[in-house]
């Protein structure tokens, strides 16, 4: 049995005990009600705000199955605990939220509870959405109520034992969840607070860009580690060696969020979908506020490498030699003989933090399966990386990555073929 299982199962038992003890306690629903009047017709401004918030929350992407109707649910999210399937949030009365009130919707976002009081799994990021104001929750509800109803029964989650028992969530919530709307920092500007509200709340950036413990809870606000999401690595937003933007200009950050590309980097993997489905539709003023907030995050050291197989100095030297030849044969034409890049088709590899992060997951997956920035209004014909898994062996991919991570002034650890093999799984993007 893997070490993670030895840790997770006792913790699950502890949660079960806590859940049983808490079963007799009052439900942790905050009131916060500001119910809409029966039959009230939302104004155009409310609907527009709701549409913008739903887009920033990336609700359509998560609640739309591949090839399915918008918001009708069915998309699966693989996790270490099993597969979670997003529910139907169209206004269908039988299978969607057609019989939900604004109060019901508020409690889902704010308290993590369904209409009937069922505790929701935190794959639905209510731990972030709890920061959303009641007025914004009502606007999102009003917008979703205007969508076409789709009769699509919800698909049950396929979870491993014991995580398929929702009673455990009572213990999990007692340990890891405190509901609460975002409170403005009066020492900061209105724009900074708007950015913090969007990043921490509706944008739920920490849902991906934070390390999690064995039970799926964010480890600590002081932990700079990024997280593994859909088998990709979401880098730390506080570390300049990963995804920190403290030394970027606000316009460079906005360009990345809005178009998927900027002079300082590009979005690939799951982040490319976030830009395509969500951020490119955001108000530029909101994106600028997010940029202001992200720039202000306290800088931390890069998280240490973990969970990789070490390569001996002798093997690393041989891999460097083989990797140099593979690079010359397959990569130099686009990325340059010295990793200088060929703008706009291919980024520079010399000094490229996406390549040299301690985690090698993303460059491995890009070489295996290829990857493109999103096609957006600002980047309608994106250049991308072709897949090399049909051309190169796992050892060859490890060799060329070890070479590029150590050439032209780069100083990252070598990559073993075992790491490459481990990444033959999960969504490709």
Q: How would the global form be characterised?
A: globular
* Beta content: under 5%
Please list the strands of the largest sheet in the order they lie side by side: 1-2-3
Mean pLDDT: 90
Alpha-beta classification: mainly alpha
From the structure provided, what is the oligomeric state, counting identical versus distinct chains? single chain
Number-wise, the strands total 7
**C-alpha-based Rg, rounded:** 23 Å
Write the element-wise H/E pattern from the N-terminal end onward: HHHEEHHHEHHEEHEEHHHHHHHH
> What is the count of helical runs?
17
- Are there runs of 5+ residues with pLDDT below 50, and where? 1-8, 17-27, 34-38
Number of domains: 3
How much helical structure, as a percent, in the residues? 25-40%
End-to-end Cα distance, whole Å, is 30 Å
Largest sheet: 3 strands, antiparallel
Please describe the structure with a list of short key phrases separated by commas or semicolons.
single chain; 429 residues; mainly alpha; Cytochrome Bc1 Complex, Chain D, domain 2; three-stranded antiparallel sheet; 17 helices; 7 strands; 5% strand; globular
């Amino acid at each position: 049995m893997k070490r993670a299982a030895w840790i997770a199962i006792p913790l699950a038992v502890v949660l079960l005990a806590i859940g049983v003890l808490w079963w007799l306690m009052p439900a942790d629903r905050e009131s916060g009600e500001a119910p809409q009047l029966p039959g009230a017709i939302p104004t155009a401004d409310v609907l527009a705000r709701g549409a913008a918030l739903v887009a920033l929350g990336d609700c359509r992407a998560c609640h739309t199955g591949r090839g399915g109707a918008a918001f009708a649910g069915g998309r699966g999210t693989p996790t270490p605990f099993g597969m979670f399937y997003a529910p139907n949030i169209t206004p269908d009365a039988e299978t969607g939220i057609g019989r939900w009130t604004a109060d019901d919707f508020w409690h889902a976002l704010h308290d993590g509870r369904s209409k009937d009081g069922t505790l929701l799994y935190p794959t639905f990021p209510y731990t972030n959405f709890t920061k959303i104001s009641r007025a914004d929750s009502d606007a999102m509800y009003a917008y979703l109520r205007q969508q076409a109803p789709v009769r699509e029964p919800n698909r049950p989650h396929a979870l491993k034992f014991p995580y398929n028992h929702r009673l455990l969530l009572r213990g999990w919530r007692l340990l890891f969840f405190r509901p609460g709307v975002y409170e403005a920092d009066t020492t900061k500007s209105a724009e900074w607070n708007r950015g913090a509200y969007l990043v921490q709340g509706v944008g739920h950036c920490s849902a991906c860009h934070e390390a999690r413990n064995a039970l799926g809870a964010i480890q600590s606000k002081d932990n700079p580690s990024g997280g593994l999401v859909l088998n990709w690595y979401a880098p730390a937003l506080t570390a300049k060696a990963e995804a920190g933007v403290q030394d970027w200009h606000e316009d460079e950050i906005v360009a990345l969020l809005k178009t998927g590309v900027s002079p300082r980097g590009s979005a690939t993997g799951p982040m490319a979908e976030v830009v395509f489905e969500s951020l490119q539709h955001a108000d530029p003023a909101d994106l600028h506020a997010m940029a202001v907030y992200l720039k202000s995050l306290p800088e931390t050291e890069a998280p240490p490498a973990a969970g990789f197989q070490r390569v001996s100095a002798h093997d690393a030297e041989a891999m460097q030699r083989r990797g140099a030849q593979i690079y010359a044969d397959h990569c130099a034409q686009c990325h340059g003989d010295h990793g200088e890049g060929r703008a706009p088709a291919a980024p520079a590899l010399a000094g490229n933090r996406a390549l040299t992060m301690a985690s090698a997951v993303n460059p491995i997956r890009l070489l295996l399966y290829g990857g493109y920035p999103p096609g957006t209004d600002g980047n309608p014909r994106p250049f991308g990386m072709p897949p090399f898994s049909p051309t190169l062996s796992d050892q060859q991919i490890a060799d060329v990555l070890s070479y590029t991570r150590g050439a032209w002034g780069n100083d990252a650890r070598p990559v073993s073929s075992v790491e490459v093999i481990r990444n033959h799984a999960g969504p490709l993007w």
